[in-house]
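Hi there. Long-time user, first ticket. I'm pasting a complex I've been working with (about 390 residues overall). I'd like to know whether the download I got is complete or cut off, because the file seemed smaller than I expected. Thanks.
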Amino acid sequence: MDAMEKHIASLVADAGQVQSASSPLRLWLKWMGVAVVYIVVSLLFLGVRPDLPAALHNGLFVAEMLLLVAIVATTALSATLLAFPDMYQHSRLVLAPIAMFVLFVAVIFLAWQADNPPAPPPVHSFECSLTIAVLALLPAAWMFYSMRRLASTHRRAAGAVVMLSAFSIGAITLRLSEQTNSIMHVIEWHYLPMIAVALLGVWLGKMLLKW
Amino acid sequence: MTEPPVTLEILMQQALAGDKRAYAELLRETARFVRPYLAKRLSIPGDVDDLLQEILVSIHKARHTYDGKRPYKPWVFAIAHFRLQDYLRSYYADQLRDATELSEVENSLSEHVTNSDFTYESIIGEVHQLPEKQATILEMMHQDGYTAKEVAAKIGMKESAVKVAAYRAYRILKEKLSR
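Hi, the file is complete. Here it is re-exported in full:
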C-alpha cells in the first residue's frame, strides 16, 4: 500500500455520518433575524431620537437608512457565501455590497450638498465611533463564531465584510438613536471609521477563520 | 437495463451518509484529478504528494460544507487552490528569508578577495568540494583572473547571480577554514 493509499485509509477510518451545514440563505436569514432583534433591543436601551418622525420626512435620511440596511443585508450575504470554500458557487453575489456602498456614498454626497447652511455639529466627536464599535462587538463575534464552523477560503475578504456588516448594524442603531443633523459629523465619526473597521476585519479574518 | 453512472456528487452524498467505501473511492478519484493540477504548478514531485495529502485532509475537514446540491469539482478546486496559495506563500516566504541581499554581497566581495590569509592555491582542495557552479566561478575569478562580469558572460549567468554564488562560496569556505 503506497503512502497515498495509507493516507486515504486513515481519513476513511476517521469518517462517519456528517450533517451538512445550513445553506447560506438559511444562515443569512438567521443573521438578519438576529440583527433586527439586536437593533430593537439596543434602541430600547439607548432610546429612539425624539425627532425621528420629522427625520423620516427627509428623503435623504430615509435613503441613507435604507442603504445602511441594504449594506447590512448584502455584507451579511457576502459573508455567508464567503464562509463556504467555493462561495456556494455564487461568486457574483459576493460582490453585491460594492453596489450598495457606491449608492451609499452618492446619497451621503447629496446629503452633504443639501446641508446648507450646515447644521451645527454636536459637542461630542469620537464617542460616536466608539459607541458604534461597542454596538458592533456582539454581532461581529456572533458572525465570526458562525463562520468558524464552516471553511472559508477567502478569509481576509470574509473578515472585512463581517466587520462592515457588524459596524453597519451599530451605525443604524446610533443613527436612529442620536439626534444630530450635521452630515459632516456623521461622515467623520459614523462612516469614515468604516474604512479602518474593514482593514481590521481583513486582519481578524486572517487570524480567526483559519481551518 | 444499465445502472446510471455513479458521479462524484453521488459518491459524496453517500460518503456524507456514512458510506466509507464511497468515501474511499471519492478520495481516490479526487486525488487522481487534483494531482495534474498541482503537478502543473509545482516543480518538485515530492511537494505535489505532500500538498495533495494536505488537500485531502482539508476536504475531509470541510466536507460538511458540501451538500451534494452543487457540482463537486468546483468545490474541490476551490480548496485545492486555497491550499496551493498557502503553500506557495510559505514557500516564497522561506525563499525570501534565506535570500542574500545584493548590497551585502557587493560590500563583502572585495573584502574576501583582498583581506584573505589564504592563497587560492592553498585552498584549492576545499574549492573543489564546493557545488560545481560555485567552484567554477571561484576558479574563473581567482585562477583565471576574470571579473564577475566576464564570468557571467562566459557561463551565461547574470552578473548579480555570479556575485551571489561567489559570496555564498566564500561563506562556506570561511566556515570550513575557521574550524
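A couple of notes from our side: The mean pLDDT of chain B is 84. Chain B has nine helices and no strands.
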